């Protein structure tokens, strides 16, 4: 199997079809592999290329990746950058700050149509206009978050939220964090 | 500081200038951060966007990332996928196989002008035509490799090898693997 094909998405598919392919491919990739770094690396690629294959605003995705619980004992309530697709990003984020911190501390998906209107938003990239952040919760603990930015306002909707929450559940079950 | 700017490279620079920017930005990013997942994630983005900003063949880079020592005790001589930019990739690679395995086992940079001519080459992506793999060696142990693929033959030269070996040295010094 040539693995790159897993993240090649045909044009002209609906968002629902593309997310189904993401979830199927992810499930197959994770079947014999529980290493979280490996699985989050491939997952960020799958989701990024899926969104890029769709019409705007989805195709304007400009960052797609993960933050995980910071293992540094000096930062017990902090997130640290994990695998991603896109430009260089902020390395650490306190639970108390921004869209990512809010998703981690409340364990609730944050669907933000306009990041500039979100109190305390952390701008890693001034091109990002909207954002979705989905917590990955395992045994009651938020172990990581899925974070996706879009260069257009209103880049994400309820369909993204539902599909990414399924992905978060799959990652929680499939990885040793 | 908007971090995305660290991986924005002006057009019209030489390869030497672009790699200098990569190494300067990497050094600044790693100054207060020794987490290897975080640092390899940002490093893959820096190197990928640097090569994309150059004329062909460098701009035909189609995968840029890392494999690290597999912590699975059942795979004592194996590499596992780390952070990367590009399409979904092979999850595990034995030390004995392919360009990555050769770089890890010999601890020597592998500059491959035509991957199809390399014995035992592992094709994660049939679009990849040439490859460079640079070992990251810490205290005599190969802890990870930098792996970059190009969709053109002869995508890399001695200048890439020298600069990426400096990056490998910086990562070895800057990260707790």
Automatic annotation (TrEMBL), chains A, B:
InterPro entries in the record: FRMsr_CS, GAF, GAF-like_dom_sf, Phosphatase_reg/MetRdx
PROSITE patterns associated with the record: UPF0067
GO CC, alphabetical: cytosol
Domain GAF: 65-172
GO MF assignments: L-methionine-(R)-S-oxide reductase activity
Database matches in Pfam families: GAF_2
PANTHER family registered for this protein in UniProt: FREE METHIONINE-R-SULFOXIDE REDUCTASE (PTHR21021:SF15), GAF/PUTATIVE CYTOSKELETAL PROTEIN (PTHR21021)
Family stated for the protein in its record: Belongs to the free Met sulfoxide reductase family.
UniProt name for this protein: GAF domain-like protein
